[in-house]
Amino acid sequence: MIGFIGIGIMGSRMAARLIDAGHDLVIYNRTKSKADPLIEKGAKWADSPREVGQQADIVFTMLANPQAVDAVAYGQNSLLSGMKPGTLWIDSSTISPTQSVKLAESASQKEIRFLDAPVAGSTGPAEKGELIFFVGGAAADLEDAQPLLKILGKEVHHKGANGTGTAMKLVNNLMLGQTVAAFSEAVAFGESLGLDKEGIIKSLFAGPTAAPILHFKENKIMKEDFANADFKVNSIYKDMELASEEAYGHGFALPLSNMVKAFYGLCQQEGKGDYDFATIYDFLKKK
Question: Which residues does the UniProt record annotate as the domain 3-hydroxyisobutyrate dehydrogenase-like NAD-binding (predicted)?
Answer without folding.
Answer: 163-283
